[in-house]
């Protein structure tokens, strides 16, 4: 490798991108975005990783990954793994460009013609939610995540019409729930009210849109295991594609209780960083979908290994893909999804127009299916001049408090 540079830009939100250039002038891009902690990864890359890349053979991807993971001694964690992911993605981008083919061809070729994608519909009340579902169907989505407001709660996770309070007041957060400003916005939460209300919403959605539309829902780590089990059971009549992050999965044993009480499929892992986080819940068949992301899991190399392991247990992919995954990270996930046999579904939250100017992309989204395109490499080009128009802006994800003031999972 000849040189590497870290590019931080904030078109519609903050992104961290690593650009590696070989001695032959071939460039590769990697996504190192860690939502709300972007500068920590940028510093890790600039101060600790980039100096180690000079003179290394860009074709030795596995060796580079093992070196960066093992030589740091302090393994794992979101900052370390996002930095390693950026290097891994960039090297795969370079290797595929040198080979003159899209990355998925190097990973074994296509296992399908396209990737089924799901979008994010939401509404504080049913009319707004129904309108959002119809809008997503009009955009081509065949599978839709449903997030709903809860009576008595002013502002909760996943509702695009929530208005931000600091930095960009009055702006819907379709593209980015992290709000620009000096302190995280506070939202409110009541689990019992949520558990009472959500089943009635899914009953209404099924009555309105019929039994065929695949529906997903994100609990966003807010329930205890027993509460999660109760929700999964109450949603069984509405045939969900999955219930995501029903309880904080750091407690792996907790999912056994959930499994004992519901047949609703479970998706877990967007906050996981390594295969070790998934090992036991895959082996014990406590989940149905792996929610890891190339950006947070150390890149294409380890996430592919995780999916090979999951395939032994008929567990499929459901890679994390809202706008805190940059177009570079999304492209890497699409190529991996094209190649693996046990692909399930790809989350696809569309980036804003300024982001699409900074990151020029070749993927397609047609009739509900994504395809990464057939340009050599990842199929993404970074416009450095355009990126320079949008300097970093401090932003934080919101947090929850209960009615008595207790901080709660958001």
Automatic annotation (TrEMBL):
Cited InterPro entries: D-mannonate_dehydratase-like (IPR034589), DgoD-like (IPR034593), Enolase-like_C_sf (IPR036849), Enolase-like_N (IPR029017), Enolase_C-like (IPR029065), Mandel_Rmase/mucon_lact_enz_CS (IPR018110), Mandelate_racemase_C (IPR013342), Mandelate_racemase_N_dom (IPR013341)
Domain Mandelate racemase/muconate lactonizing enzyme C-terminal intervals: 127-265
A Pfam family: MR_MLE_N
Gene3D superfamilies: Enolase-like C-terminal domain, Enolase-like, N-terminal domain
SMART domains: MR_MLE
Residues making up the signal peptide according to the UniProt record: none
Stretches that traverse the bilayer: none
PANTHER family per the UniProt record, alphabetical: D-GALACTONATE DEHYDRATASE-RELATED, STARVATION-SENSING PROTEIN RSPA
NCBIfam families (UniProt xref): ManoateDhtManD (NF043051), PRK15072.1 (NF011654)
Name of this protein: Bifunctional D-altronate/D-mannonate dehydratase
Species assigned in the record: Curtobacterium oceanosedimentum
């Amino acid at each position: 490798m000849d040189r590497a540079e870290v590019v931080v830009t904030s078109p519609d939100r903050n992104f961290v991108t690593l650009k590696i250039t070989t001695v032959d002038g071939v460039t590769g891009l990697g996504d190192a975005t860690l939502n709300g902690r972007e500068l920590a990864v940028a510093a890790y890359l600039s101060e600790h990783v980039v100096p180690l890349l000079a003179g290394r053979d860009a074709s030795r991807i596995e060796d580079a990954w093992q070196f960066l993971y093992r030589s740091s001694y302090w393994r794992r964690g979101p900052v370390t793994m996002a930095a390693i992911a950026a290097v891994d993605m960039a090297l795969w981008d370079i290797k595929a460009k040198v080979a003159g083919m899209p990355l998925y061809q190097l990973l074994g070729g296509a296992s399908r013609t396209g990737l089924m994608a799901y979008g994010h519909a939401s509404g504080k009340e049913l009319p707004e939610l129904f309108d959002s579902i119809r809008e997503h169907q009009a955009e081509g989505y065949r599978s839709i995540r449903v997030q709903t407001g809860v009576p008595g709660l002013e502002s909760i996770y996943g509702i695009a019409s929530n208005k931000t309070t600091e930095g960009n007041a009055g702006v819907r957060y379709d593209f980015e729930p992290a709000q620009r400003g000096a302190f995280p916005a506070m939202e409110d939460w009541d689990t019992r009210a949520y558990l009472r209300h959500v089943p009635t919403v899914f009953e209404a959605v099924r009555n309105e849109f019929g039994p065929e539309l695949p529906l997903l829902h994100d609990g966003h780590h807010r329930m205890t295991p027993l509460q999660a089990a109760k929700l999964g059971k109450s949603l069984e009549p509405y045939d969900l594609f999955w219930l995501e992050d029903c309880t904080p999965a750091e407690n792996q044993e907790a999912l056994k209780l959930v499994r004992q009480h519901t047949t609703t499929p479970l998706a877990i892992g967007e906050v996981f960083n390594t295969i070790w986080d998934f090992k036991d819940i895959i082996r014990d068949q406590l989940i149905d979908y792996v929610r890891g992301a190339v950006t947070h899991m150390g890149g294409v190399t380890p996430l592919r290994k995780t999916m090979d392991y999951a395939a032994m247990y008929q567990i499929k992919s459901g890679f994390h893909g809202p706008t805190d995954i940059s177009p570079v990270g999304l492209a890497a996930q699409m190529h991996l999804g094209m190649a693996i046999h046990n692909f399930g579904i790809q989350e696809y939250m569309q980036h804003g127009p300024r982001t699409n100017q900074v990151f020029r992309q070749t993927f397609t989204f047609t009739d509900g299916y994504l395809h990464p395109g057939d340009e050599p490499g990842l199929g993404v080009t970074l416009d450095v001049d355009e990126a320079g128009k949008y300097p970093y802006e401090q932003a934080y994800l919101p947090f929850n408090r209960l009615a008595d003031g207790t901080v709660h999972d958001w």
